[in-house]
Amino acid sequence: MPDRSDRRQFLRVLGGAGVVGLAGCTGGDGGSDGGSGDGGSDGGSGDGESDGGSGDGGSGDGGGAERTIQYGVLLPLTGDLGSVGTPMRDAAVLPTTLLEGEDLGGISVENQVEDTQTDPSSGISAANALINAGIPGVCGPASSGVNIQVANQVFIPNQIVGCSPSSTAPTVTNLEDDDFIFRTAPSDALQGQVMAQVANENLGVSSAATLYVNNDYGQLLSQAFTDAFESADGTVQTQTSFEKAQSSYTSKLQSALSDSPDLLVIIGYPESGTQMFLDYYADFEGEEQIMVTDGLKDSKMQQQIGNPMENVIGTAPLPSGPASEAFASAFEEEYGEAPGIFTAHSFDASAVLVLANARAGENSGPAVRDAMREVANPGGTEVSVENMAEGVRMAAAGEEIQYVGASSSVDFDDNGDMSAVSYEVWEFAPDTESGFETVNTVEFSGSN
Fold it and tell me: Of 22, 89, 337, 403, which sees the most CB atoms within 10 A?
């Protein structure tokens, strides 16, 4: 989202919350959907027969002609984000699972899963595999570094809808995308404000340093935090970049901590973050206050580090949509564990793609694009995780529906960004089921 949020409203909401005591697909073979349980979601959707009857699903005739809705899932199952990408994949294929065996008026739903490996070049190859299979819309990619490359080199030129559940870089907003690029995750233009406000007003720090992964996500979020923190009279002493998957980060930590900042902000992903914190707790006193972001909200990381990480807090988009509880229940019933970071956003991205495809009546990128806001934005019968089958039938019959999501209300603005989102301030809590505890929430709504 663009950073046009109402700062007075932001300050009022955060200040009124009163933060005290502070403490965001298995299988790396690219074509497997692991334990999704949907039977036909691992690549069988690309056989060319799924768009039969295209064009009649949204004609208002009840969607009686048989056809198959296709969508892709392009997320990191391996690499730096593999540990969080796997449950995101599970959430993204869940709409297929929930709709299997339901009366969809002659419609069936299939998905094809590909692995970006948290790498732009691998993401481009995986995206091309989806294009070659005739996929018109894709949930993903996850990281902004991969998403922007895939969008510019694959989705936009081929007129394919991309709906990322976790690409948060502000540059996504301004892509010259002919309206093919959407996201259910909020922009880091907002998260930077949340981070700065918590650092300044609630942690009481006046100086900071940032360590950020060297891609669009890390660079732009570091700058968004710096701009917001310094506008509130704080000082950011250094902004230090680092590369993914290094064997040691001790020298980078030394550079960031050289001027003894009150706060160290770390922006990265779990694999690199695990090594960085192992180095930090081994080579430094561990007395600094540390703030991390959504990319490091991974309970497995804390287990691997073997430290309670009591000096660490984080910020992340908070799933707070009308259907958040229903989604959490469905996810846990299907997979036997609580949903994690960006899983609600992944489900919402896939669900909207399915409904838009039903409304479009064909596996066509431009037709799905034109239907995204029609099925998601206000107006019509509300559809959520609890009545997805009814929503598919209604969308195919040309009836007005409004998808209400798990991550947010899922209302797209003119840029394909979310119109209303929430953030959380969290801390590690190893004794809880999720491994985290939310200690405050911040809401943005209707400002863009």
Answer: 89
